[in-house]
Amino acid sequence: MTLTLQFFGGFVLLLFGAEYLVRGAVSIARKLNVSAMIIGMTIVAWGTTAPELTVSLQAAMNDAPGIAIGNVVGSNIANMLLVLGASAVLFPIVVKPRDLYRDAAVMMGSALLFTALALSGVIERWQGVLMIAALIVFSLYAFAAERRRGKSEGPGELAEEFQEVPQHFWLAVLSVLGGLIAIIYGANLLVSGATTAARLFGVGEEVIGLTVVAVGTSLPELATAVVAAFRRNSDVALGNVIGANIYNLLAIIGLVSAVTPVPIPPQILTFDLWFMIGVTALLLTLVFVQNGLRRWAGALFLCLFVAYTALQYYGVENFLS
Known about the structure:
This protein is mostly helical.
C-alpha cells in the first residue's frame, strides 16, 4: 500500500508541479513583455519536460542509472507509441510534411547521437556538455527561423491550455515556487518507490524506468494529445512529441550526465536504444508517406506499446536468447 501511495503521490506532484511551474513562469514572462514565441520555445518547452529532468537527475544522484536512463528512453518510446497512437486512434493526424523536415531530422539526429555516445557504456561529463551545446545550437537556429516566420505570418499565440495564468505577480511567483517544490518532492517519491518496486518484484531498475516511471512522466504529453484529439487538433500532439523527444535526449541526458557520469544498463544498450531508433524511423516514414498518421497506424502503435511493455516484464534477455 505504501509503495502504491509513493507512485501515485509522486505522479500527482509531478503533474501538478509542472503545470503550476509553467503557468507561473508564463505569467511572469508576460509581465516582463516577453513574446509568446519565446515563451513557447523556452518556458513551456523546458517546463513540460521538468518531470523527466527531475526524476532522471534524482535517480542518477541516488546511484540508480537504470531509472535515470530508462526514464528518458522509455518516455521517448511512450511518447511515440502510446501518446501518438492514442491520439491517432481518436482522430487521424494530418500534417504537411515540409513543416516537419527540420524538427524530424533533429529528432532522429538526437537519437543517433545519444546512441553513438552510449556505445562506450557510459555518458561522460564532456559528452553531456556536447549534447547541451547541440541543443543550444538547434534552439538558436529554430528561434531565428520561427522569428522570420513570425514576421511574415504575424505574431503567434500560446496554446489554449496556457492562456489562463495567474494575473498577480506574487501569485505567479508562488506558483513557480510551489511547482518547483512539488516537482522535486514528487521526483524523490517516485524514484524511491521505483527503486523499492524493482527490488521487491525482482526486476531491473531499467525495467521500472522504461515502463512505469516513463509512462508516468509522459502523462502531460498524453493528456495534451487526448485533449488536442478531441478538439480536432491532433497534429498538435505530433509537434509536442517531436519537441519533447528532442529535449528528453539532448537536454535531460545532457544535463544529468554533465552533473555526474551516467552508466548505460546493458539491456538498454543492447535492445531499448535500437528499439527507440526503429520506432522513430517507423513514425517518420509513416508521417511523410501518409502526410500524418491514420487510425490503423495509431492502432499499430498501441499494439507495439503493449507488446514492448509485456516484453520488458517477460524479460528481454529471454527474448534475445
